[in-house]
Specification:
With about 300 residues, the chain is α/β, with parallel strands linked by helices. It is built from 13 helices and 8 strands.
Length: about 300
Amino acid sequence: MFEEAQYFAPVATRDDGSVVVELAANHPGVADPIYRERRNAIAALALNHTPGRPIPRAAYTEQEHQVWALVTRELAAKHREYAAGEYLRGCERLGLPADRIPQLQEVGDLLEPLTGFRYLPAAGLVPLRDFYGVLEDGLFYSTQYIRHHSVPFYTPEPDVIHEVIGHANALASDRFARLYRLAGAAARRVETGEALEFISKVFWFTMEFGVLAENGADRAYGAGILSSYGEIEEFRGMDILPLDLAVMGTTTYDITQYQDVLFRAESFDHLEDVVGDFWATCDDEVIARIVTDGAVVKSAV
């Protein structure tokens, strides 16, 4: 229900050096002064972080740990039913704590021996080229805050549940980690904003909201589905299309709603062959040709 690196509450630094997260009027925590103060403090941790240094610890409250524990427990049950096998193997390898929110430094310490990935803290918006580009280096930008306790199964923006349960479990898989790195390399390789947007949309419809066929059923592997208590129950009823780079890279979507159009890989090998090979070889010219050829096919139809 949100797009990485694009759908964040704005973060501002005032003249006195204080950090303020500007929550929307309809945000679940907007009228909670304690929550707002904590959001500000956690954003300041990321802004004050020096790359290469340990990630500052967020002092989570017992209430916040309880939200993590509740959502983790409920999602784990749904993952056993709906998640792709490669994602489940990543969950087993990583071994995230179920009863408390792990620190981002801790998540990176668990991931690095497995696939070389580490986390970077993000206060809010990260420019698209930066967000995707660092994936090539085995780095993943992540928020540290958690959703408001009043709605534990909903968040209007990517929080630590999405960033860690959705993405870190995938990043614990060698095969998924390779795809993330290839996406990062592609984002750095292209020069135009149009090509970068095309790559980001392919990422959206795969690593965020991807589905693949497995054992005769559709299984989710996208972090956006697997971190959403509601969406994971609904995705099989959406319009699920075959993988098509031209369509994925040019399809618009509403980040505030459940995704009503998804794309299915016929297997993990198929995902690697189509999307992995695309990210490994694409440049501005290749993407422009895919868009043009796709438009020709649409007009012919």
